[in-house]
Amino acid sequence: MSTPDDENDLAEIVPEELTKSTRDPAALRGAVEAWLAGQLPAGAAPEISEVTSPSATGMSSETLLFDARWREAGKEQGGAFVLRLEPDLEDCPVFPVYDMKSQFEIMKLVGERSRVPVPRARWLELDRGPLGAPFFVMDKVEGRVPPDIMPYTFGSWLSEATPEECRHFQDASVGVLAELHTIDATSKDLAFLEFDLPGDTPLKRHFENQRRLYAWTQEDRHHPVIEQAFEWLESHWPEKEGAAVVSWGDARIGNILYAGFEPAAVLDWEMAALGPRELDLGWMIFMHCFYEELARSMDKPGMPDFMRPEDAAATYEAKTGYSPQDLDFYQVYAALRHGIILTRIHARRVHFGEGEWPEDIDSVIYHRSTLERMLDGSWWE
Q1: Domains of the chain, first to last
Q2: pTM for this one?
Q3: Is the alpha carbon torsion for 178, 267, 46, 37 positive or negative?
Q4: Most buried of 17, 144, 319, 338, CB within 10 angstroms?
Q5: Average pLDDT, consecutive stretches of 10 residues, N- to C-terminus, the chain (381 residues)
Q6: Catalytic-labelled residue, pool 99, 184, 196, 250
């Protein structure tokens, strides 16, 4: 992990203000209201509040919030809603493709076939006419999220919880993965989660997708640590991958809304796919490692006893009867995947005039030294 000199340097890593879109949410109010009228029965006459964008939203699909009221069957109806909108291709999006239909469908299927808490998926719009891009609308769920900015490991409601509360939180979060993975991934209506790419197993196709994502993000750049990680993974491939499950993809605690210390809603399904169970478990473990290393680099207490690999694996096994395998491999794979995303996020900063490419190009991968230690084996000692 690169070591920031102070919190001003940390702001370079996790800036609180970073351009995510050139769209003006407030200007969309009339268009959203008109579109909603077309989804409701005649005479519903919906009225919506100001459309806003949450400051804590990520940099992938755009997130818009609004309240709506209308009349239906002689009664007042309404609620609070979240609209997820395909990003503008001119805004240097994180991913090359945003399949809003797939995100909508996986949320519905997860809600129907498991006890994983997901928001109610309300409406899907694939026509670009109403808002200029495909989108879907879901119910807003109240809850709290471990913050990314500043990272929850720097001091937050989670880091300040008791050891018992933290362990309950950890076990409940791993339990989300255990429950998700009970869904029958062989069901034909889940085939849309499979990558139509070369490879004779779901993991190999997943890996090929990451190669292509890196090729798309890199343009004329080469990131040595990412390319070394691809080579390491190929030479340390698991002997047995295990059966494929429904993989959430972005399985981190920052994508879960919590009621107290219990998961209330699982969000952000754009990276969902079919693959081994360890894809999600390795990602959840590594993403805490990422924030923990940031805290350590700033001499913060952090949360060193939280989401340790052996503890997360033991909880998963206790809940499923399945013993996770090759977690070192999957943590390296998570570090690689996160590294690719960070290079694209930096490309967005350059695109919006908020940064430049440094001479040490791998320095934009803030866990570069962690990944290097994983690759040379010293991380595991």
Answers
A1: 22-86+96-139 (3.30.200.20), 152-380 (3.90.1200.10)
A2: 0.92
A3: negative
A4: 338
A5: 46 51 78 95 93 66 92 92 90 88 97 97 96 96 93 96 98 98 95 96 97 93 97 97 95 97 97 97 97 92 96 98 97 98 93 93 95 96 84
A6: 250
